[in-house]
Amino acid sequence: MEMQHWHVLIGRFSGVIAGIFGLIVLVTSEASASESLDRIEALRTEIARHDALYFQENAPEITDYEYDLLKLELRRLEAAAGIPTELDRVGDDLTRGADQIRHTEPMLSLDKAYSEAEVADFFDRVARIAPEGVVSFSLEPKFDGVAVNMVMERGELVSAATRGNGEVGEDITDQIEAIEALRYEWEFDATRPRIERIELRGEVFLHDSRFEELNAARSLAGQALFRHPRNVAAGSVKLTDLAEVASRGLSIVLHGWGAVHPIEATPPSVMDFQRWLERVGLPSVWQTRYVTVENSAELNHAVEAYRESFSGYPTDGMVIKVDSGVLQKELGHGPTAPRWTLARKFRPTRVETVLRNIVWQVGRTGILTPVAEFDPVTLSGSTIRRASLSHALEIERRDLRLGDAIWVEKAGEIIPQIVGVISHQREADAVPYVIPDTCPACGHELLKRSEGRELLCANFRCQEQRIKRLLHFVSNDALQIQGIGPAMARRLILTDTVDDPSDLYHLTTAQLVALPGIGDKTAQDLLIRIEASRARPLERWIVGLGLPGVGKGGAKALAVKIDGLRDLLDEPRRSVALEDFSSSTAEELSGYLDRREVREMIERLSGAARVP
Ligand code: IVH
């Protein structure tokens, strides 16, 4: 049954997806030499494209697992055809123009295992040289974030860099220092040999709860949701706005070391290293499990049992490490990866369900986001009913049709994703999905931007946009008016009690108690909170305007340049205020600020604001 689905999927998707599942075909079919050369060429192109999406744009289109399978297929084809592989290089995250730092010891990658048999092979290789064939391992989550190399000297952070190409990384010292979670007390103790300088390898990542908070805020602000916590981590460590880096709530763990000075102070085992981290107050891999095993079955058993305990942070597998430093040294390393460690990757769980509907959510700025709704299914312990699709074109690319049987997956991803259509189950009368050309909320004609990727409702008075703008205005980063949640905002707008945020400042108790579920006391409390918000600082009022491309950092920068909201409407004050923005953002902002509705809203709001 399962196998049948895979085969159907192979026929279903062209390009990428075909490549992913091509591996399975490979086992059953005999490709001719020229076919396999063609395939090698196609895979190389495809992998290069995904490398660029992942490393340069932070916008992967496929899951890591799918990517790994592409690479695995390529390696096997190359080996069979006797062609040297071009794959053996570490991915490159270098951005042009950024300062670079050379790692003292190169940052290698990890060999990967996709099955128990591969773990068993690894064990056998290690056990062959281990005393009596008994080996101690550390088992650790493979954190799915962005790799970092930090140099610490006598308790001080000297520098921090991304992995880059493995030899040279990008300087992210300031960003790492801005991470709130990295507060340590490295007492320089007198015991010898003591570590004076060490290269620490770790992972910057986002806890699931923090990722959800960030996305909840973005959803309120009408901004596109982050797809994956890893992309947020990777993007955040390269931001130049350090306040923004701090506000992302990043976490960090340290899982390894590079060069150590003096060399005699090198930790004798993984366990000793982790204990040292704890002692000096640096973030360790707190959930590491240590096991001592005599055979590969025991190791696999421990791996499977431990896997269950990963929760609350994104992972993309498990790292198995030989604990003993002596044994590690003996095993050494190959061209790209150490021989003493292995990343065990697991096939993400996917479930089958039926696509019932595609709804379009209208954001504050009028951008429409498609959300797929399907029959409820249980994945990693939670019931899910919907998955957001990245943009309108994804529907066409996948040819999603209502009533289709689909695969839904949560691959270390918090947001579930549709990963395939089971087309042989498609009803004969299923019709292609028609992308709407009018706004589902207000009926206004939609604009297409970015080659059809983005659908936009340009009606400033669209009720959904007004609701989202109001919610954004009262949100914590803006005017912080508690008591107006989504239901209340909807009521205020749909009953015409509030037309735009400035109307909050003219509300009366009588108007509020006329709404269902609002009593005298609630109404009065709300009015007091609204009144108090008049005195919020200018930057919060700027955030509240919900200008496209202006977050907390941008609002702060603008607030320094202007004396009041009205200055945004005034030349040349406005040009001066926009000087520090990129020319494309400045242009978009000017266009927005020139809209009559926006000018009117700003006029009204500046009347309400009581800012110095
Ligand atoms: S040890 C020689 N331990 O995985 C490499 N790496 O594919 C030794 N990673 O970018 C790495 N969690 O940053 C190790 N518990 C863990 C890890 C881990 C995540 C990352 C690492 C590297 C990637 C290698």
How would you describe what is shown here?
It is a single chain. The chain is of the alpha+beta class and 612 residues long. The chain has 4 domains: 2-81, Helix Hairpins (Orthogonal Bundle); 100-344, D-amino Acid Aminotransferase, Chain A, domain 1, CATH 3.30.470; 350-454, Nucleic acid-binding proteins (OB fold (Dihydrolipoamide Acetyltransferase, E2P), Beta Barrel), CATH 2.40.50.140; 463-608, DNA polymerase, domain 1 (Orthogonal Bundle), CATH 1.10.150.20. Helix content is 39%, strand content 20%. The chain has helices at 2-12, 15-28, 33-56, 64-81, 116-129, 173-177, 208-220, 229-236, 242-247, 270-280, 296-307, 325-331, 392-398, 463-474, 486-494, 509-513, 520-533, 538-545, 552-561, 573-577, 583-593, 596-608; strands spanning 100-102, 112-113, 135-143, 146-153, 156-162, 168-170, 197-205, 251-261, 289-293, 315-322, 341-344, 350-362, 367-379, 382-388, 405-409, 417-421, 446-449, 454-457. The strands form 4 sheets. Strands 12, 13, 14, 15, 16, 17 and 18 form a 7-stranded antiparallel β-sheet that branches. A 5-stranded mixed β-sheet has the order 2-11-10-3-9. The protein is globular. It binds 2-(butylsulfanyl)adenosine (IVH). 2-(butylsulfanyl)adenosine (IVH) binds at residues 108-110, 140, 142-143, 147, 163, 203, 255-256, 285, 319, 338, 341, 343.
Helical fraction: 25-40%
What general outline do the C-alpha atoms trace? globular
Structure ligands: 2-(butylsulfanyl)adenosine
CATH superfamily of the largest domain: DNA ligase/mRNA capping enzyme
SSE class? alpha+beta
Number of DSSP helices?
22
